[in-house]
Design brief:
This is 3-isopropylmalate dehydrogenase. There is one protein chain. The protein has helices spanning 14-27, 41-47, 53-61, 86-95, 118-121, 166-181, 197-210, 223-232, 244-258, 296-308, 313-328, 346-356; strands at 4-10, 33-36, 64-69, 99-105, 125-131, 143-146, 156-159, 186-191, 217-222, 239-242, 265-269, 275-279, 331-332, 342-343. By secondary structure, it is α/β, with parallel strands linked by helices. The chain folds into two domains: 1-106 and 271-357, Isopropylmalate Dehydrogenase, CATH 3.40.718.10; 115-258, Isopropylmalate Dehydrogenase, CATH 3.40.718. The strands form three sheets. The chain has a ten-stranded mixed sheet with strand order 2-1-3-12-11-4-5-10-8-9, with helices on both faces. The structure holds 1,4-dihydronicotinamide adenine dinucleotide and magnesium ion.
């Protein structure tokens, strides 16, 4: 396993927030080699492409990519292939990152930042594992055609294909079961098996894979019910695994339970634990360069990187505990600030986390 980390700050607040995560990693004195490169709009300006070859090559030979964010309004008029966001899609595709892990954690100190009642969400700690490269988003055939069956024969219709290959479901199942083993050993698989063939197939495979993980309790839930339970009693969940479409929706819903976009990390993994780690939020051009952005989502993404790509659970927990401690001490960036706490900027928040380590 390589100890190389590709550091790709990108656009907007990317530079400021990634800098803090890099400082935190440095403070832990780990055996990691960090190499920086340009990505996103900034790479387009410099090299004419949001994911230049040297950046992609660096990512490919690295065990992990620490990513900031990409995008800015000024690139909105570019042809799609040159838009900054294409860099993430290109990295996912080239590294085969099929598993998207998004924790939704609400530190008790931030319970009143959520839109839900504090008792419903305080201490919330769930992990959504979303399949990222299959499902109806990529299934073919797709397009527009003249309907030849059903109630609207002869009419124009739009159509997509929901599909999952057996090996595709198996590999995401293994990621989810292994994540569950590191946590409360509870895995809920979300599908729509009462209506969809793809979902019944998914469910059967989950049950089959579960035989290899007798220590993990597997349950199943329909997506409509899961969407409901996630706001009614989110703490009932620990790890949730689901397909691309349902996962897209559920992971956004889960992130809102915490009410603080600046706090949410994410990981995208392949079968060799090579991964891309980034905050769930975007490049926030409205606050870029002002030392206002919350770096904690990126710092927590670095913790996920140590856990999933480098197998260093201890260092990951050290970072997470340090984040809990700075919140306990009352430090807040503007996005999570409330009266009676200590308002700090991006770099001061980094200082506080390093001090807490
Ligand atoms: P955004 O997440 O960048 O910002 C939404 C709101 O949250 C803004 O008011 C912003 O100031 C605030 N915010 C975001 N992160 C924050 C942080 N760390 N601390 C404090 N406040 C924070 O989403 P938006 O505005 O829709 O998109 C801006 C740009 O980011 C667009 O170009 C979009 O395409 C791109 N984007 C990139 C993503 C990525 O790189 N993975 C993901 C989502 C959006
Ligand atoms: Mg989404």
């Amino acid at each position: 396993m390589s100890n190389l980390v590709a550091v790709l700050p990108g656009d907007g607040i990317g530079e400021e927030i990634v800098e803090q995560a890099v400082r935190v990693l440095a403070a832990l004195k780990l055996d990691l080699e960090l190499e920086k490169a340009d990505v996103g709009g900034r790479a387009y300006d410099l090299y004419g492409h949001p994911l230049p070859k040297h950046t992609l090559d660096l990512a490919k030979k690295s065990q992990a990519v620490l990513f900031g964010a990409v995008g800015d309004w000024k690139y909105d008029t570019l042809p799609r292939e040159f838009r900054p966001e294409q860099a993430i899609l290109g990295l996912r595709k080239n590294l085969g990152l099929f598993a998207n892990l998004r924790p939704a954690v609400l530190y008790p100190q931030l319970a009143d930042v959520s839109t839900l009642k504090p008792e419903v969400v305080s201490g919330l700690n769930i992990l959504i594992v979303r399949e990222l490269t299959g499902d109806i988003y990529f299934g073919t055939p797709r397009g527009i055609r003249i309907a030849t069956d059903g109630l609207f024969v002869g009419d124009k219709e739009g159509y997509d294909t929901m599909r999952y290959a057996e090996s595709e479901v198996r590999r995401i199942a293994h990621i989810a079961f292994q994540a569950a083993q590191k946590r409360q050993k509870k895995l809920c698989s979300v599908d729509k098996a009462n209506v969809l063939e793809t979902s019944q197939f998914w469910r059967d495979i989950m049950i089959d894979v579960s035989k290899e993980y007798p220590d993990v309790a597997l349950t199943h839930m329909y997506i409509d019910n899961a969407a409901m339970q996630l706001v009614r009693a989110p703490k009932e969940f620990d790890v949730v695994v689901t397909g691309n479409l349902f996962g897209d929706i559920l992971s956004d819903e889960a992130s809102m339970l915490t009410g603080s976009i600046g706090m949410l990390p994410s990981a995208s993994l392949n079968a060799t634990n090579q991964g891309l780690y980034e905050p769930s939020h975007g490049s926030a051009p409205d606050i870029a360069g002002k030392n206002l952005a919350n770096p904690l989502a990126t710092i927590l993404s670095a913790a996920m990187m140590l856990r999933y790509s480098f197998g260093n659970e201890i260092a990951a927990q050290q970072i997470e505990a340090a984040v809990g401690k700075v919140l306990e001490q009352g430090y807040r960036t503007v996005d999570i600030y409330k009266e009676g706490t200590i308002k700090v900027g991006t770099s001061q928040m980094g200082d506080a986390v390093i001090a807490a380590l």
